[in-house]
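Bench notes, bay 3.
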Amino acid sequence: MSRPSLLDACHGEKSKDEIQRLKLDETVSTNQWLRDHDGPHDMVVWTDFQSAGRGCGSNSWESERGKNLLFSMRHHPHDLPARRQFRISMAVALALRDVLTRWLQTVITVKWPNDIYWQDRKMAGILIENRLKGALIDSSIIGIGLNINQREFLSDAPNPVSMCQIAGHEFDREALLADIIDEMERRLNAVDDLSEEYQLALYRRTGFHHYSDKDGDFEAEIAGVKPDGRIILRDTDGHERIYAFKEVRNEKL
């Protein structure tokens, strides 16, 4: 059975189970495009270039035109409580980890909460924006920037890496995107508990490493991740410290 084209127009005739997919030459950001074109159906939009692509917070995302994957998926979870929204983050991160491990045949890890790493270098970032309806998540816009065929990075980002730099050759972006979408859909629609698998996939999940918080520097190991996404670090004195995203840093990253 042939795979549906990733160049399908967003309002074309679709079967019930087929996700809508749209390719744009350029846009401000794929997350913004989906916010501006809200709808009841799951959808993927991808582009060759984003004029205002961003990571978490105020961070920007460097991407040479036509070299990488810049895309967003609109997903409608089924009866997922807002308090369990970190499940979406785990599902997406594990989907990317699995696909990239297959394509590169090397160890890929997830830096808490959802950056994708090869060794000590960042290959992909994920930005998730959830919209609530009462106590449930009505929809999620999942934005992903994945470095694929870019050979040189010019920004001041400390540790970017691309698949091409790792493997020494370029990759088919469209085929890779199709594989990622399939795996994301499978992970997002599964009902199994992802917590243990996610924690086993974490970058620097064993050993003590350098961290810093508002009170200063310390050494700690990862003791776990709570269901709401907060990380548990155990310092060298055996004390557990619990942090939300942006409350703790690993200075080398």
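Next record in the batch:
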Amino acid sequence: MKRTHTAVWGIILVTTLVILSGCGKKAEPEKDKTVKLTYSIFFPPTHIQCQTAQSWADEIKTRSGGSIDITLYPAGTLTKAPQCYEGVVNGTSDIGMSCFAYTRGRFPLMEGVDLPLGYPSGLAATRCATAMAQQFKPKELDDVHLLYIHAHGPGILASKKPVNKLADMKGLRVRATGLSAKIVQNLGATPVAMSQPETYESLQKGVVDATLCPVETLKGWKQGEVIESVTDTSIIGYTTSMFVVMNKASWAKLSADQQKIVTDVSAEWVDKHGHAWDKADEEGRAFIAELGRKTIALDAGQQQQWKDSVKPILEEYVTKTKEKELPGGELLDALQKRIALEATPAN
């Protein structure tokens, strides 16, 4: 009987020690579950903006320890450029990148960013576009989670025949989208709406005589091969702002730590996209020089004529947004001040 009691007490002692030792251990932190996301982009995989988006996705995967895995679908293979935003809203893709201008009228306040305000660079346009969205928080973007915006450098005119002065624009059919279509109209030409993927063939076949675009497209989309001259119209340099947005339900699936990673990386990639646009513009200029395309500079008198021609577009934007009770005037004022700030050498 004594041996039995001893054995029982031994078992109790060992069990107690095991329990106590277990209580002393810290619980392992729960790891975030792996979330797989799809990312629809209209740029081809060879384009620097698609490559910059891929580096964004790679950085997020690295910082999240692989718990956020983003697969890119470039060249409109998941959703075409004009349907990309709605594709994010309805969940066709978790993330999407495309142009606000491809669905004209859908983003009345953000259209102000694309106005012909003489942007000095892609970096400036990208910083300005993101800053305006953060400052004014447009309700038109409430159906998605906005990650950031980027925008190309000043738009120029690339044409199949030389455009030396404003009068040469009369009768030309010019590829343009969104507000750039109004720019074409005010310059005396006829706008033809189409996305970048359609433009090369349209220029080649004579469907359009020219395209209003950032110089980078002449290499990035090979359009320099089917034009003969470039007119430097950066005095009225417009931009085309591009959203990077996420489906709200997909965003909600991320843990707080994962959301912070995506937010932090996105903030860092604003300037990376801006610098990428500027690098692409440099390469575009080099490309057309290699092809022997002529670049035409407008004299001071012509520059003023082109500026005067597009001034009504700014006034119309303010009027229309006011009618919709949107702060278009305030955004335009803030935007012009920000452009001036970005144009200083320190930036």
